Amino acid sequence: MSRCPLCGGDIHPELLAKTTAPSLPLRRLIQQEHPSWHPSDGLCPDCALAYARRHAHTRSARPLNAQTFPRTTFPYYHPLEYGLLALSERLPHHPGYTGKGVTIAFLDSGYYPHPDLGEVVDPGLDIASLDTDVARIRLALESRPNRIRQYVNLIEGHEGVGVDAPSLWSDASNSWHGQMTTVLAAGNGQLSNGLHRGYAFQAGLLPINVGRPSGSIPEEDILGGLAWLLREDNWQRYGVRVVNVSIGGDFTQPWWENPLCLAVEELTRRGALVVVAAGNSGQERLLAPAQSPSALTVGGSDDANRRWRVDRPGEVEGLRLYQHSWGQAQVDAWYIQKPEILAPAVWLAGPILPVSPLFRELWVLGRAWEALQAGDGDEARHILDEWYSVVKLTRAIRTASDEAIREALLLRMNPHKWVHRHAQHVDGTSVAAPLVAAVAAQMLEANPKLTPTQVKQLLVESALPLRHLPPAQTGHGLLQPGRAVALALRRHGGSLAGLPVSATAISSDSLRKLGIAVRVAVDAPAPAGDSDNCIYVGMYARQARSVSLVGSFNRWQPESLSLERVRDGWWHGVFRLPRGENVYRFWVVDGASGAGEWVVDGENPARVESGFATAHSVIG
């Protein structure tokens, strides 16, 4: 047994090895009080949690961008947290499912095989050094397998099929929008060290290019994309189970009179879920195909780039609506409220087109900014001097103060909505819809037997109600990725049918049906009756030798609270936890290597900052 270098408490040596990368704010805070401590020393999770809570209290209640000169273009709340939250921080997802084996089709105005669409993350890929030369970048990317299963070009009524089409590798400005939607749904985080990774980062992709060279997309062209999928069941040939439509029609029309809406209905009937952006008018006005009854229409939410917890009503009430369109679809005597579900629609990291001059400029500015954030002004000066030909900041920057460099960088970064070396912040229901499409792909990976109607039903059933917002505009509430996958696993035909969702309080009757013995997580008096804080937990770990529960209640000691293996790699148990807040993870020992890993509960959307890259799960 090892000891925490800060508090001296016992900690499993393998777990200590997992705690050597606390966040930058925590490193600064710890070193103020323990100057001799180094991140490589690690620390126990309880100490990290305590410092994370202390750091949280130092965040500003109001966005700091309003107090920055020049004023930045997105909200942030601490000087060391200048950037956008990752999707996993906004809406916790199920880490066990990645959309593998499912293809998502996209209808959009142009695409590019962005590095984040690769089969795997390739540490040796240095796309920025290729100087935005279109041919060289294409050569570098073509040599690495990507997840684009096929590419269809329907521009101006012409039909071209093939991933070698020039329009797929074009540096035209209209290539950006489709690149953005595909990467938001299925990017693997290649260019952001995993920070900005999509939920379905192993899904296959079928981009369908529609519209005109000018960038306009008439409704008849969107219809052409759906007609191609329907023709000869092309959707089935390429394994398409989800279709994302982040573009809209020309005018309002009853769905039963609109050919585009009728095509959505037919595609749904055949077996593909169609996810559609509601539109950004801020009015009660839906354009095709958003009013299609079978479509899953997606509106937008705004979390102000602020951390919040799903289990704290006061923090949930801080969420606001994006200015999306809304309305109703009539089916016989029934009315379906649209949108049915919301997803984040603002302050999302959108990828910059790799073959645009902006890509390399923001790469240089980002490197210099990151050096400044780390307190290394000399390195920032060196970067700006070395890459003078790209950014063309005056050479006097060599002798400028750190504050002057910061101001000069912001003046260049702000017009481009910079948030990362390779990303700028984007908004609209166009970016909300791909998030829902990605979760649908995770659900279909978890339970391939689901029909489009069932996927839609489970997504809205698992959504978080936002009762403080206008009901006509919120639908069933906010997307909950992990919970949606959990319900998919338990739907008829799913591998966990009949079992509770993890992190669920369980009654004595349910215990008897499950036949699981209750374990006491800590030595504490056991309250009587059904309200004895018995919690069911479980996770998939097919290759594991053992799985145990670790947390604040047992000082994170692996193996002491073991789970039982059942049903094709599902491990579960029921534990009596102490009253109050219980922070936890699972400790998973690999069957082949014997190495341990700590993993969050993918089915529990309640998370708390851990001080590390990923949050802890929390109950209570």
What would you note in describing this structure?
It is a single chain. With 620 residues, this protein is α/β, with parallel strands linked by helices. It folds into four domains: 2-87, no CATH class; 88-349 and 427-490, Peptidase S8/S53 domain (Rossmann fold); 356-421, no CATH class; 504-619, Sandwich (Immunoglobulin-like). The protein is built from 19 helices and 26 strands. Strand 4 (152-153) and strand 5 (160-161) form a beta hairpin. It is globular. Mean pLDDT is 93; it is low at 523-531.
Average pLDDT number:
93
Q: Percent helix among the residues?
A: 25-40%
Q: Count of DSSP helices?
A: 19
Tell how many strands the DSSP assignment holds. Answer: 26
CATH level 3 topology of the largest domain: Rossmann fold
- The backbone outline, from C-alpha atoms, is globular
Low-confidence segments: 523-531
Distance between the termini: 29 Å
Question: How large is the radius of gyration?
Answer: 25 Å
Write the CATH homologous superfamily of the largest domain: Peptidase S8/S53 domain
Q: Which architecture name of the largest domain does CATH use? A: 3-Layer(aba) Sandwich
What fraction strand?
15-25%
Structural class by sheet pairing and helices: alpha/beta
Question: How would you characterize the largest beta sheet?
Answer: 9 strands, mixed
CATH class of the largest domain: Alpha Beta
